[in-house]
Amino acid sequence: MVHFVGAGPGAPDLITVRGKKLLEQADVIIYAGSLVNPALLEDRKEGCQVYNSAMMTLEQVIDVMKQAEEQEKDVVRLHTGDPSLYGAIREQMDALDELGIAYDDCPGVSSFSGAAAALNMEYTLPDVSQSVIITRMAGRTPVPERESIASFAAHQATMVVFLSTGLLEELSRELIAGGYTEDTPAAIVYKASWPEEKTFRCTVGTLAQTAKENGITKTALMIIGNAVTQGNYRRSDLYHPAFSTEYRKAET
């Protein structure tokens, strides 16, 4: 059996209870060494084989899984954050389907949730933003033209940009071309929930400058939109005394 497990954003205690149990029971662990905190491997059982997928191809990863299956061993494929976001899990699952190897998926806490926690912010504020767009810049790996940063910026929703720390000048240009102003609030969160976590509030126009001044070159998320400042929002209707719900009547 192969278990795809979300490691969470970085802190070892932010993995799910289910994910931790699967790690402790695994005979083989294949982890994304460039992003997953190695402290998560400390509770592995004696004799567990560990592979760092940062140094492997897809074919090599599948070969390890195939060999483990032949030896009736349980495998944990440990991905950073939640495997469903930029985890490249579909191609692994398709290969396992072809081989007739069973698998399941254990979700994790995404780094975009960890970044919000680091900033003590809420992405969805009434009258400010009720939608979150999770995306990335086109780099060595392209994105569909219909999903360009500029096209998403036109919505003025809260935007969380992954995998783009080295492209911040281009990111600012795309955001401004799409409709954000240079002084639109923004934030950079480096290694959310790790001991070395850092947060920087800035603007769309100062993203690149902020990263350069603080030596941030990778492993960071950019958050764009007025929700970053947490101001000028309307209080929730759900908890307003004048609002009726299924569980309580409105006060007069």
The global form is: globular
Question: On the 0-100 scale, what is the average pLDDT?
Answer: 94
**What's the number of domains?**
2
Q: Strand tally, please?
A: 10
User: Which second-level CATH architecture of the largest domain applies?
Assistant: 2-Layer Sandwich
What is the highest CATH level, the class of the largest domain?
A: Alpha Beta
**Low-confidence stretches at least 5 residues in length (pLDDT < 50)?**
none
Tally of helical segments:
7
| CATH-derived topology of the largest domain | Methyltransferase, Cobalt-precorrin-4 Transmethylase, Domain 2
Read across the widest sheet, the strand sequence of neighbours is 3-2-4-1-5
Sheet with most strands: 5 strands, parallel
Estimate percent helicity: 25-40%
Structural class: alpha/beta
Q: Kindly report the name of the CATH homologous superfamily of the largest domain.
A: Tetrapyrrole methylase, C-terminal domain
Q: Estimate what percentage of residues fall within beta strands.
A: 15-25%
